[in-house]
Design goal:
CATH architecture of chain A: 3-Layer(aba) Sandwich
Strand order of the largest sheet of chain A: 1-9-8-7-6-5-4-2-3
Oligomer: homotrimer
CATH class of chain A: Alpha Beta
Order of helices and strands of chain A: EHEHEHEHEHEHHEEEHHH
Number of strands of chain A: 9
Number of helices of chain A: 10
Largest interface: A-B, 32 and 34 residues
CATH superfamily of chain A: Ribokinase
Chain lengths: 256, 256, 256
């Protein structure tokens, strides 16, 4: 399969649509990245809401314009609320993103990810180790950090996309977005982003915001990746370490 | 009702009292704003403690000098612990603040907020959509962000204050504080603060700190709002986007 | 007992070992400091993973290279998962650190800390009020902030180390590390670090990372304290308030 790139016009259109719509994104994410996830969405022009109660998740997924499900720190109660939210999103035609944080090596989360994969996520976004793991080809990552290059997970991503009828986004030095037919490659960014917790997790939420505002999921996903890489490049120029990188990354998102 | 303003002498006295007392504030808040809430209190000169266990919340509310209850991310267990803390605060004469995050639209939290309102919070602090919602006049906000101006919620705030015998603080471009008799208006600040998650939630905790150190709740509340607006003005001058705004906001609180 | 200091060669060796190994640290910590804990580990050259599910904690403690247990915001479920993780760490010979946040005054956490102390933590890291409390000599701190100097807790620390066969690290203006035989004193840093939430909690995790990469726990612990103090000195020079202090502290860790 030949690799496509996102035209800068299409990127700009996708960003403008997010800013015009200001989509409300329902975030069900892990304990560690709650704040950066909200701040990334706000900086990009979307509106975050972290609604996780079993009593609220299903209703709220129907009110929001997109849903994020991130399995980083699960409990049985949270998994049950996530199921309600996913079912509601599907019933109301809302796009949703699955982030399989740390997949490969821990049976509980692997079981949850396997179940959620069958519930037709619009996009699955993960690092190479995670995408390899959920496609059954993983050698196991190192906790939540990837030990594989995104290239090495590309054929697994294509296979996964075809098998589950979803768009798969595998991020790394180059990000790849595929629906099993097309592959869009997004280059740029900097490895320094991996030294700030939540840059990957919050990208998954950014994908959800772009899905809410744009019709084609491959384009939406590639545009979100492009925005993250541009913000990382801005941060690379305006920081001396990971503390100031994080600050400049959020600034960069708002300045694009 | 004519609108009053807080004299700068009264503001400075209120701030000095917080810094002299360094009140211990018991924070029961949502998953997203834990860190910024603690850092806002520390920067302002208070001492935060996030104690949420059912086994600890009641006891700790009697040891602390003020309590914050924020309903952003509830669970049944947390609600039960909050009830214990509120009852203990009331029994020991400690002031407490209710932040009805996202009220209006989700039955579970609306029910919890309605119950807590009857437990005599010293102050209720919310955005316009939230205050309209809990007074029964809401059209529904957008998730946790306000879609109404604070002016539009002013008569609802006065009504709420009279009905429940509480002080109501509705924040926005202008912040209003009312006990149903007096209205104090606090101007200044910048809309840019709404692009940083937790500036509203952490203001509610700041109100709790000011209540612990100052006798009149209207003055305490207006002083906390003034401090937040001054810090936001400092941040407005010392930032290029929401990442650096947040950093400068915390700096600004400590420099006042 | 005479007080030793850590030689700068030993410090540099200890830091290099962390960066060479890039240890995976299993963090079970409180709700407030999740993000700063992860970012401190990443900046220092380690790899954090926050795995807290009852179904995962035991397995993951055997995969990770060190474990942190912080009792700041407990629930019964979390305590049960912590027990599994501690047992697994002990069975697989992995070092683990106990951070008794807020010990002294709340029966529930004091009971949990007393139990965990008998499970042979490699290191116990706390402020003076906490170390005094768990050795039975406390007058009670102020929430989670210390009201005692580290000197005042030194003999309690030595006693605790002998009683439980552990290394005790009491931090403050001077940090002390003792195994009951030796005392290493670490000076420097700045009191301004206490105005940023999580500088203490994340130091405990840094200790875990150093334990994973270095054989002698006293040296590992003193090296982690030294790294934190150096980063705080860097931050002291590159900040105007606690907001920018936190950013510079993370930067400083990465620049050492």
């Amino acid at each position: 399969m030949s690799q496509l790139v996102l035209h800068s016009d299409d990127f700009e259109t996708a960003v403008r649509r997010v800013r015009d719509l200001r989509p409300l994104v329902h975030c069900m994410t892990n304990d560690v990245v709650q704040e950066i996830t909200a701040n990334v969405l706000l900086a990009a022009g979307a509106s975050p809401a972290m609604v996780v109660a079993k009593q609220e998740a299903g209703v709220f997924a129907s009110l929001a314009q997109a849903l994020l499900v991130n399995v980083g720190t699960l409990t049985d109660t949270l998994v049950s609320a996530m199921r309600d939210a996913i079912e509601s999103a599907n019933r109301h035609g809302k796009p949703w993103v699955l982030d399989p944080v740390g997949a490969g090596g821990l049976a509980y989360r692997d079981g949850v990810v396997a179940e959620f994969l069958t519930l037709k996520p619009t996009v699955v976004r993960g690092n190479a180790s995670e995408i390899l793991a959920i496609s059954g080809h993983g050698s196991g990552g190192k906790g939540v950090d990837s030990t594989d290059s995104s290239e090495s997970a590309l054929s697994a991503a294509v296979h996964l996309a075809k098998t589950f009828g979803t768009v798969v986004c595998v991020t790394g030095q180059t990000d790849y977005v595929t629906d099993g037919e097309r592959i869009v490659a997004v280059t740029g960014g900097t490895e320094r982003a991996t030294l700030v917790v939540g840059t990957g997790c919050s990208l998954s939420t950014l994908v959800a915001a772009f899905l809410a505002a744009n019709d084609d999921p491959v384009t939406a996903c590639a545009a979100a990746c492009t925005m993250a890489k541009r913000a990382a490049e801005y941060a690379d120029k305006h920081s001396v370490g990971p503390g100031s990188f994080k600050v400049a990354y959020i600034d960069g998102l708002s300045l694009i």
